[in-house]
Amino acid sequence: MPTSGDLLPPPAEAAGSHSRAGGLFQLLRDGKARTRAELALSTGLARSTVAARVDALMLSGLVGPAGEAVSSGGRPPSRFAFNPAARVVLAVDVGATHVIVAVTDLGGKVLGQRRAVLDIADGPKVVLDRVVTLGREVLAGAGRSLQELAGVGMGLPGPVEHSTGTPVKPPIMPGWDGFDVVQYIRKSLAVPVLVDNDVNIMALGERAAHWAGHNNFFFVKVATGIGAGIISSGALQRGADGTAGDLGHVRVPRGSGVLCRCGNHGCLEALASGPALAAELRGQGLDVATGADVLRLAAEGEVRAVQALRQAGRDVGDVLATVVNLLNPSVIVIGGSLGEAGDHLVAGIREVVYQRSLPLATSRLHIGVALAGASAAILGASQMVAQHVLSPAVIDATLAAAAGGV
Predict the structure, then answer these.
(1) Which of 42, 98, 225, 234 is deepest in the core (most CB within 10 A)?
(2) Could you tell me the end-to-end alpha-carbon distance of the chain, in angstroms, rounded to an integer?
C-alpha cells in the first residue's frame, strides 16, 4: 500500500527525473499533445532517449497518437498524448446502508455504475463479496475486462489506517476492526487495492471535479457524523495514524454538559450532527427521527428547525475558525447530507468563521456547498488509484515487468 504522500503528489514533485519512462510520462499527464522534439526540449534528454521512452509508453497503451504538428518543412511530426482509456479503475463507495461500485477510466470518467442497499453491520465478508460481484458486473456492462483493471479504490465510513487499508475501531462497522480489506479483495481481483475513509475520498473527488486550482482545500462532511478531509499544498493530509480531520470530536464552547458517544463531553458531533439536531427537536415536542426530518421541517418553514440548523452552523464555525487560522485554506466546502441541503447551516458557519478568523486568512476565503454530491466519493476513489498506478515508480515497474515477459 502507498502511504499518504503517494496518493496525491503535486505534478511537479511527482515527475522527478525524466530520464526514465515513468518520469517522462508525468509531462503527458495533463492530456496536452506533444511531439518527441517538444518532450526532448522540455526534459533536456536526447531525442533518441525520448523516442525510446515514448515507444515503451505507446506499447503499454498509456500514451497514444494525437495527430500531427504543423510542419516547418518536410513530413509533419507526430504528436502523442496520455490515453486515459487504456486502463480502468473500480471505484467503490461503501456507506452505512449502501454500496456504490463504478468503473472509470484513468481520467476519472465514469463508464458504468451499480448501487446496492447493504448494511455495513452485516460484516466485511458479506459487504466485500457484494463489492466484488458488483465490480465484475459493472466491468462487463461497460465492455471492459479484468485484464484492463488497473486497481480498486474504496472509501469506508470509519477510521482507516492508510498505510495498510485496515479499519481501526470503526464505531458503526461491527466486525470490521483490523480486518484485512486489501488482501480479501485481492483474492478475487489481483490488482492494487487502496482503501481510505470516506471523507478523505470525498475531499479528493470534490477538489478534482470542481476546485482543481486550489491546493489548500478543506472539505467538511456534516451528516450522521462530522469529519473533514484536508488537502494542504496539493497533498491529502492523513496525520500519523490516519485520524487527521476528525472535527466531530473537537470540543465546542456551547457543549460543556453534552455527552458524546465517544465518552467525552462537548464534542461538535454531539451538538451539530443530524442525530443530535433530531434529538434536540424531539425534546421540543416535534416529530423528528433523523437529520433528513430536520431538513424537511426547515424547508417547510418550521422556525425551530431553522434555528437548530443555524446554531449547528455556528458550532461548526467555532471549530472552523481555528482551522482557518491554523491551515489558511482558500476554500472550505461543506458536504454530507446536512451540509449540502442545509443553507441555514452554511449561513451559520460563514457568520462565525468570518467574525472570528484573522482578516488576512479570510480575505480570499470561499465557503460554499459541495458541488459533486453523491459522485464525490466515486471520483475520489478513482483518483486515488490513478495517482498511484500512474506514479513514476509504478509505471517504470510495470514497463519493466512487461519487457521481461516478452
Answers:
(1) 225
(2) 27
